[in-house]
Amino acid sequence: MSDQKFAAKTIIITGAGGNFGRAGCIHFAKLGARIAAMDNNDSALLETLREVNAAVDGEAPVIQTYICDVTDPKSVQETVEKISNDFGEINMLWNNAGYQGQIKPTLEYDPVDFARVMNINVTGMFIVLQSVAKEMASQKKADGDTTVSHPFSIVNTASVAALRGTPAMVAYSSSKAAILAMTVSSAKDLAPHGIRVNSISPALIGPGFMWTRQNELHAASGSPYFSSDPEQVAQAKVGGVPMKRLGSIDEVIKSVAYLLSDDSSYTTGTNLVVDGGLSAGLKA
Length: 284
Fold this sequence. Notes:
This protein is 47% helix and 14% strand.
């Protein structure tokens, strides 16, 4: 099955070796997209490649993998150039690579890890955004097609942590807040080049290893905001969600798909929150 919004469109997905990135690769491949899967973990990328090939039953998915360090401008530029040469064009970017960092109260947080979180989540995201946007802008100029005013779309992965200021996650929350500002500013700068830029902010997505592990780390953090029992931490989190359940990775991917597609053709500079109402009423 293909979807005309994604059929034969080239989508770059960073962090493609992780749970969300891998699910995104599978989702868009099933819709007929051409996937450029980027990650700095070779074995994780190979697993993504295997799962995509297995998921697209009866059809040959078009997916290529690229080892890339998002914090290295030279690595990113060379990778984006290779993707453009391999596929002929770049239509969409899910700027998804990220690093959670430590879960510790502010007084105990390691400044070295804080810098690493910011380097990957903020500087790395900007490097990828800028490099891909330059390629998109050059395509727009060369094409000269005015039938679609903004044919290119970028989605940055932020987080509800940016809106709520999650305790014991000062670096992660700070980095995701920076992404929200980056999204708005770059959306304005890139609109004249036919590029829309939006962000997605998930929270409490599970079940699975990531959900379970984060609850364990919050319980062990010593923060007065969390029980020392991981199960009680989980119960309290879900109890604060108006919809009283966890979200699924699939629900996040569908929201990303909306922002990437022409279904959101008049939307740019927006943050789409996917959290069951957890942060309703909060503003960045």
